Amino acid sequence: MAFWKPGTIAPGSVVERDAQNELDSSILTTYNSFSRLSLQDQRQQLPIFANRNHILHLVETKRLLILVGQTGSGKTTQIPQYLHEAGWANAGRIVACTQPRRVAATTVAARVAQEMAVTLGEQVGYSVRFDEKWDPIRTRIKYLTDGMLLREMMVEPLLQQYSVVMVDEAHERSLNTDIVVGLLKKVMRKRQDLRVIVSSATLDAQQFRDFFISGETIAEEETAILTLDGRVFPVDVHFRLEPCSDYLLATVDAVVKIHTLEEVGDILVFLTGREEIERAVELIEQEAKNVRNIPLQLLALPLHGGMSMESQLRVFEPTPRNTRKVVLATNIAEASVTIDGIVYVVDSGFVKLRSYNPQTCTSSLVVHPISKAAAQQRAGRAGRTRAGKCFRLYTEAGYDTLRSTNVPEMQRSDLVPVALQLKALGVWNVLRFEFLSPPPAEMLARAFEILYSLNAVDDYGRLTIPYGMRLAELPIEPMMGAMLFNSVRFQCSEEIITIAAMLSVENIFVTQSGRRKEADFEKRKFSVEEGDHISYLNVYKTFLRQNQSPSFCRKHFLNYKALQKAVSVRNQLLRYIRQFSLSLTSSHDATTIRKCIASAYFSHAAMLQSDGTWRTLRGAGMSPVLHIHPNSVLLKMSPACVVYHEVVETTKSFMRDVTVIEPQWLPELAPHFYTKA
DNA sequence: GAGCACTGC
Questions:
Q1: Per-residue pLDDT tens for A97-148?
Q2: What interhelical angle do A516-526 and A532-545 show, nearest 10?
Q3: A138 and A256 share a domain?
Q4: What is the pLDDT of residues A308-351, one digit of tens each?
Q5: pLDDT (tens digit, 9 = 90+) per residue, A261-304?
Q6: Are A400 and A502 within one domain?
């Protein structure tokens, strides 16, 4: 293939896969060359074992250790054990290891408990939302999501119970990881004894060190950067010689070329979204019919977050005989989901990213070029089980123009919840908080204006007690929290908790390509003219009445897993209601429920214009022209006045989760915001 | 008559 310019990357030079994958490679006997060894012998075979004493020495003598960990180095499972063996968990102290994802925290904890031959939940435990197994007295090593560590810090800001905190996957720059890192720097000022380990990728290790040594919190000589070798297979990386004008067609072309020219092995393709993936599947299926001289069948499978769990599971089934599987995936396959047997990766070089515009309170979902770090992560997906190849649909010069690491989530998020959480975590002056990547001061100032309008902070920017503190404690966004508190007054808290839970989960209605009409028909059975919120209430009530039956969901195109999550969220919210001693009352009057929604979402009210679009009532000149989202039950209706949960900008500015209201409610419910004309 | 990347509390 003269088409491709080869450029090998050395074994171990790909960015670390997430902790769960690291674990998979040692659990799955098929691919574990050490499987016949005892667990202790297996531990000593890991590349990291050679560094054990060095790591312990660094933790002993330095206060901050930055680990550049390669794939399969075993750092997530081994380092906490080394620290435990060396006595860092003596005298009632605990070694903590944070993860950005729930599955990683729980599965790694299970593996470590197994290696230490202890019962999970005793010496080794984990803590994630909805699920925890650890013992306040006995637990010595604790794996937790960084979000859970933040919750613990609301109660114990100095983390006195922990001797070492290891922040894993810090290079992903998730919102919570960044907040944890910023807070750890603050804690290190007050606790000389605390040890911090930050695990990251090559490209940003120095940035983490610079962050901690700035402001003389800790001296440079109190820090160390250590690079660990990994256990992965080499991946040949091929660039295009010429840029392509249409990466979708280039994708299909690349898949067909791999299929005809390369030896057996499954293909993983990275694209940006559902629509694109479905088109690519179609095109590949067409092309596959024309390939006649190959004994292998080509099986194209989509993989994206909008699919039901059972459809997603299809990509994990073993590839049938005489078949080559090609999985066309979104970013879900970059870190969250690992597919075995992938030998070839086709990388479009693009990703769909959500970013937030605080001026219009709008989030947009736009296709962006990926970062170099993400490109390496994607390439690494080909080297899991044996040597692989990665075909990049961009030139080497194009690669050089990519930014080195991901845009931190902090830079593209609504800062209202961040500001509220930092206040609740005891950060007195949020504008002076040391962020790893500081957001513009005016964006933080705007966040405080909104917190003030919600009565979460007072004239001086102080958190109100108990209201602001309670809003911060709730695991939902502040405006939704306000709706929850208002529901007590409207005497419909039962229904509002359900609605809040349903708004917290995505993709309640699943759509399978080709069965859209059926799905639409089923959806209409739950739909009411009042709008999406009340329709969700219907879905939830019916789901419970059907005893949370998976087959009921399948029959009616409902997402079983999403609904189960809604049940968990609702139970959690119910616990908060009880904790705050709020009364639980039920209302069968949809008008009351709609008024309650509008009482918190009054700033999200929009009026129908003569041209058939909507505009927000206040600041209409600034607000974009709004449309009802195609997923809304109100799509074909033209309600005169609505409130919406959020606006997402894709091809247009769409209002998602819309409820019909009467315009005269607004001056009654929010007189400070709307004055009667 | 069109659309929705992925996490987390």
A1: 999 999 889 999 999 999 999 999 999 999 999 999 999 999 999 999 999 9
A2: 90
A3: no
A4: 888 888 898 888 888 999 999 999 998 888 888 899 999 999 99
A5: 999 999 999 999 998 999 999 999 998 888 777 778 899 999 99
A6: no
**Within-domain flag for A156:** yes
Judge if the beta carbon of A174 is closer than 7 A to nucleic acid strand B. yes
Among candidates A318, A323, A329, A244, which has minimal Cα distance to A281? A329
Structure-token match 């750092």, residue found: A75
Mean pLDDT to the nearest integer, A635-653? 92
Residues 122-151 on chain A lying near strand B, CB distance under 7 A: 128-130, 145, 147-148, 150-151
In a domain, A7, yes or no: no
Number of domains in chain A: 3
- Of the residues A205, A228, A251, which one is the last residue of a structural domain? A228
Question: pLDDT tens-digit profile of A354-363?
Answer: 988 888 888 8
Q: Which tens digits make up the pLDDT trace of A159-207?
A: 999 999 999 999 889 999 999 999 999 999 999 999 999 998 777 899 9
Q: Which residue is nearest to nucleotide B8 (CA to C1')?
A: A147
Distance A53 CA to B5 C1' (A): 41
Q: Report whether A171 contacts A200 (CB < 8 A).
A: yes
* Residues A493, A365 within the same domain: no
Closest residue (CA to C1') to nucleotide B4 in the complex? A306
A245 and A325 share one domain: yes
A151 shares its domain with A289? no
* CB distance A420 to A375 below 8 Å: no
Cβ of A545 near strand B (under 7 Å)? The reply is no
**Residue A238 and residue A221 share a domain:** no
CATH number of the domain to which A281 belongs: 3.40.50.300
User: Per-residue b/e over A544-575, b at no fewer than 16 CB within 10 Å?
Assistant: eeeeeeeebbeebbbbbbbbbbbbebbebbbe
Residues (624-643, chain A) with CB within 7 Å of strand B atoms: 629-631, 635-636
Whether the CB of A280 is less than 7 Å away from nucleic strand B comes out as: no
Question: Within 7 A of a protein CB, which nucleotides of strand B?
Answer: 1-9
Give me the domain span that covers residue A82.
19-228
* Closest by Cα among A596, A598, A586 to A641: A598
Task: Determine, yes or no, domain membership for A431.
Answer: no
